Amino acid sequence: MSNQNNQILKNTNAQILDEFNASVMFDKELYSQDIKGSMAHSQMLYEQGILCLEDKEAIHKGLLQVKEEIESGKFEFKIEHEDIHMAVESRLTQIIGDAGKRLHTARSRNDQVATDFRLYVQEKSLSIKEQLKELISTFVEVASKHTSTLIPGMTHLQHAQPVNFAYHMLAYANMFKRDYERFESSYERNNYSPLGSAALAGTPHNINRETTTKLLGFKAPTANAMDTVSDRDFALEILFNISTAMMHISRISEELILWSSYEFQFVRMSDEYATTSSIMPQKKNPDVPELLRGKTGRTYGNLISLFTVMKGLPLAYNKDTQEDKEGVFDSVKTIEISLKILNEVIKTMIVNVDKMQKACKIGHLSATDLADYLVQKQNLPFRTAYYITKDVVALANSLNKDISELNIDEIRSANEEIKNIDEEIVMYLDLKASMNARTSFGGTSTKQTENQIEVFKTWLTRN
């Protein structure tokens, strides 16, 4: 092979290796956090007498110019910069000269990336938390209008007992409240500054980590530099929190898909969030909830991917952790748009009260009330009451009626043991009465549901 061909091959291999090694084309997402961290670091270096005032001011001015160039689209990211840190530092040095080379004193790219990435995760934890709060508020708003609207409560996707639609909406409000609390607790647990940990063992320079901690808005510096530069628990936590919230988004999406079908017709989604078939103009497809349900899978994948990356890493920093960011960026973008869209879907959906009411007359939803009545009023063992109720249900089926539609004579004729049952049982089997009988704390009665709404409204005001 000629020397010329050898050189071409070497150049090609070098280019491939540069592309393989570089992260700048995706970690540029962290530019604002990187600049924020650099400004805090340079301020601390100045206060500690490591940087002179002139150099510190030049660095700050230059960093702000770099930020403006990035945000205006003038900045050119290049593979040879390798990562966002070198891209910013290289341009800073071009702008201000040798003063820019002093910025990296007393830090390493190891603690720099840990700081940038943690700042990003902390900021996103707060913003996602606020989106969750807005979604919870929407569920509560819808619930406030439907505390007496009956809907079949289901187990195994079979009609079970009558509940009100507000109660069903509040079940999701509770799910998303837990998600809110997960992001909140993760923020508190991870609100520690990595900056100053250097490569893995700290630095001999006379730095003050408390200063950078305060400037960056953290609670305290991290306690062990070796753990700090290799720690990605905070990234795993936000991926888990996102995955759990997306699982809840997927569950409500599945119900919206079912409820909007011809078989249910409980809700009608706004035309903005549904599409027609390409060949069947009569169809209205729930594409948006389907996409929300589908996108859950990618957030699970991102979580498992980072778990797999981290599982065998020795201390301290390893290049493997360069694989930590793209999945987090992707999951963050996924949940941000998913929460925004779901909020609008819930806000704009039309609730078909009549269809829900009609569906409650399928499946004998108040059958349990007969059994409970026999236990409470007739002092029968529950198992005996259970079998008597089965007889009444069988009679209702033979008459092509729901149990709530039986008259007193029909009920008495179903089983010898209840031939003299009091006529008040008819009232107990009424669907709305059945729903309102669930007065235990956390139950579905209108009164209990209204109490839950008030609790949520108080919580929303305080948070």
Automatic annotation (TrEMBL):
Q: What reaction is this protein's catalytic activity?
A: 2-(N(omega)-L-arginino)succinate = fumarate + L-arginine
Q: Indicate the segments forming the Argininosuccinate lyase C-terminal domain, all copies.
A: 365-436
Under the heading InterPro entries, the entry gives:
Arg_succ_lyase_C (IPR029419), Argininosuccinate_lyase (IPR009049), Fumarase/histidase_N (IPR024083), Fumarate_lyase_fam (IPR000362), Fumarate_lyase_N (IPR022761), L-Aspartase-like (IPR008948)
Q: Which regions span the lipid bilayer?
A: none
Q: What is its EC number?
A: 4.3.2.1
Which pathway does it take part in?
Answer: Amino-acid biosynthesis; L-arginine biosynthesis; L-arginine from L-ornithine and carbamoyl phosphate: step 3/3
Domain Fumarate lyase N-terminal positions: 12-301
Could you tell me where this protein is found in the cell?
Answer: Cytoplasm
- GO terms of molecular function: argininosuccinate lyase activity
What are the record keywords, sorted?
Amino-acid biosynthesis, Arginine biosynthesis, Cytoplasm, Lyase
Q: Which cellular component, as a GO term, is one annotated location?
A: cytosol
Q: What's the family?
A: Belongs to the lyase 1 family. Argininosuccinate lyase subfamily.
What protein am I looking at? Argininosuccinate lyase
